[in-house]
Amino acid sequence: MTETIHNVDHAEISKFEELASRWWDPHSEFKALHEINPLRLDYIERAAGGLDGKRVLDVGCGGGILSESMALRGAEVTGIDMGAMPLRVAELHTLESGVEVSYRRVPVEVLAEEQPDSFDLVTCMEMLEHVPSPASIVDACARLVRPGGTVVFSTLNRNPKSYLFAILGAEYVMGLLPKGTHDYARFIRPSELHAWIRPTDLRTTDMTGMTYNPLTQTYRLDPDDLDVNYLVTCVRDSD
Fold first, then answer.
1. pTM confidence score
2. Which residues participate in S-adenosyl-L-methionine binding (predicted)?
3. Among the CATH numbers 1.20.1290.10, 2.30.30.30, 2.40.160.60, 3.40.50.150, which is that of 10-236?
4. Is residue 40 a known part of a binding site?
5. Which among 98, 188, 212, 235 would be 20 to 30 A from 158, CA to CA?
6. Is 52 annotated as a binding residue?
7. pLDDT one-digit tens code per residue, 55-100
């Protein structure tokens, strides 16, 4: 197997392996994922021009919250992750829910060699900041999507505000995420993400931020606020 399989941080994988059994508990450490899922699902559906009948790849799918949601809207979904326990939880949940999703434990770079130009939509949500080489992930996503298809990324900006909100606030003050979920040094500025997108066949078509109001405990999308969480939509140019 190619050396790109080493684009995995085993310490990061271990964090989510330890919590995997609680992935589908909306009151657990994954509460925030459950709460933002409707927002990001609607954003993805709009970006892709609908999900019904689309062949979709969810990169870094974890326990399958987004994967199942897209399948429920009519997509044919494959979810991939390098964590064995989250994938097992995802598979078990499909048995309970009856939602059909195909899961694989495979590096995205390896899948890009196996199945280039194969998906109408590729999603990579909250994953780039957890790997040693996010540029390699971006490149693989670009190769996996078909010409004319859509790729959606989400990640965290790197600045003092994001450190305050995403780490001190979310992990230590409000307890929205387990302590140690994020490493600030791995947060990604939009300019850095664009630098990795530019050499590929992808073209950025939209950017929007996701904000959290601690008073109302609600999330919303805001295209004018990319300071903390943000989403990027790309289209692969047709050949």
1. 0.91
2. 40, 60, 81, 125
3. 3.40.50.150
4. yes
5. 235
6. no
7. 999 999 999 999 999 999 999 999 999 999 999 999 999 999 999 9
